[in-house]
Specification:
single chain, alpha+beta, 6-stranded antiparallel β-barrel, 4-stranded antiparallel β-sheet, 5 helices, elongated
């Protein structure tokens, strides 16, 4: 008699489905190995801005001063040009409340001095013209006198030549008359008359020779006077010209002093505008490290930070040197922002939830201090927008999308420790930040 319990324990006569399930699982595993898998590399980074002027800006004191008024507190939102705080002067060189006015008065005084020297230069120029005219007139007079003396000398020399001829004739007549007197052919009276005529001719010649010598001496004296006049007027001209150049030098010096004082006036006015620390852009004031009234600020000392309101966000990711050849400009990167929940399927990024697409626009060629290479990622406008509540400096995890390969190839690559496949992105259109490869 068979027991019912025996039938419950032994299933020899029942058909088993283990083989069927094993077969299905084996076939499913084989099919799964041929499913596509997206290769990727995981990187870390942080949120930043695309443009330098949109990054947090530190507030610095442009001049040393004492805080006399606060217009903001930590966390306040300000507009560009809003006054954040007011300073007062602490340097004794700038404490005079009428400093700009007094310096401007110095400028006006220097301008007056310059005008006086300019007038003196004009007067000196007129003096030079007068001296030139007087010199020319005097030299013309002396030239005319020399010409007259030369004409006079010519006439006297002509007379001297004539009287010389007359003297020669008179001398011949006197000689003949004396011979005839000695021979008794003429009377003593006739001989004396001829002797007197000869003596008169000699006297005339001597007088004319003296006149010629006197005229020549006058010509020589006039030439000496002419040279003396030239020398005197040259000294006067040099002295007056020297005074003119001295006045012109004073004018140039005054121009330099005026420029220096005007520069000081401009600097003083600009410095007065630096007593008010204003917001350089729209944003939120944070990290104020000075409190109260009366605190002293040094030149260039940090006061706080302004975080801009309008920001074109980007992500800085850091790549290992071994993975650097895998990252190219225009490459797709899936970003996971801290504080935003995400469900990530590593090999199927399109099926992940909470990830945001971006693309690489630049890869730095120089290694950073942390031993990694930095790349800049911006939002992909063709896909889901990045969350509007992300903040500057927030952490980001990135997944750089590489090539699509079968799962079996990815398993084989990881088991053997091989790197992902190297490839280049091929796009039909050129990116805004770089050309496609």
């Amino acid at each position: 008699m068979e027991l019912k319990s025996f039938d419950k324990i032994y299933h020899i006569h029942k058909k088993s489905r283990v083989k069927r399930w094993f077969f299905f699982i084996f076939i499913g595993g084989i099919i799964t190995l041929f499913l596509p898998w997206t290769q990727n590399i995981k990187v870390k980074g942080n949120v930043t801005s695309l443009y330098q002027e949109q990054r947090p800006q530190q507030l610095h004191s442009p001049i040393p001063g004492k805080i006399i008024k606060w217009n903001v507190k930590n966390g306040d939102y300000v507009k560009k040009g809003d006054t954040l705080l007011q300073l007062s002067e602490i340097k004794e060189d700038y404490m005079d409340p009428l400093l700009v006015q007094r310096t401007q008065e110095q400028v006006n005084a220097k301008k007056g001095v310059r005008e006086f020297y300019e007038a003196k230069v004009g007067t000196t120029k007129n003096q030079l013209q007068a001296i030139h005219s007087a010199r020319d007139l005097k030299l013309n007079q002396l030239k005319i006198k020399i010409d007259q003396l030369n004409n006079k000398l010519t006439g006297e020399e002509a007379e001297l030549s004539a009287i010389s001829n007359e003297l020669k004739l008179s001398e011949d007549q006197f000689t003949r008359q004396k011979k005839m007197y000695d021979e008794g052919l003429v009377s003593l009276t006739q001989f004396q008359q001829r002797s007197i005529s000869y003596q008169n001719t000699v006297a005339k010649k001597t007088a004319l020779e003296n006149k010629v010598l006197q005229t020549r001496q006058e010509i020589l004296n006039t030439g000496i006077e002419q040279n003396s006049v030239i020398q005197d007027y040259t000294e006067k001209l040099n002295k007056t010209e020297g005074e003119r150049f001295q006045s012109m030098g004073q004018i140039e010096g005054s121009d330099g002093d005026i420029a220096k004082l005007e520069n000081q006036v401009a600097n003083y006015k600009a410095r007065q505008g630096l007593y008010f620390i204003i917001a350089s852009q729209d944003g939120q004031v944070v990290q104020l490290n000075k409190t109260g009234i009366g605190e002293i600020l040094k030149e260039g000392e940090n006061i706080g930070t302004i975080v801009p309101s309008a920001v074109d966000y980007a992500v800085e990711i850091y790549i290992k040197p071994a993975d650097l050849p895998l990252v190219k400009e225009g490459q797709r990167v899936m970003c996971i922002f801290d504080g935003f929940p995400a469900i990530v399927f590593s090999g199927w990024p399109n099926s992940s939830y909470g990830t945001f697409a971006g693309k690489v626009i630049a890869v730095e060629s120089n290694i950073s201090a942390n031993g990694l290479f930095k790349a800049l990622v911006i939002e992909d406008k063709n896909e889901k927008k990045w969350p509007p509540k992300i903040k500057m400096g927030a952490g980001v995890q990135g997944i750089a999308i590489l090539n699509d390969v079968p799962i079996w190839y990815e398993l084989w690559r990881n088991i053997n420790g091989f790197p992902p496949d190297y490839y280049e992105i091929k796009n039909d259109k050129e990116s805004k930040y770089g050309q496609s490869k």
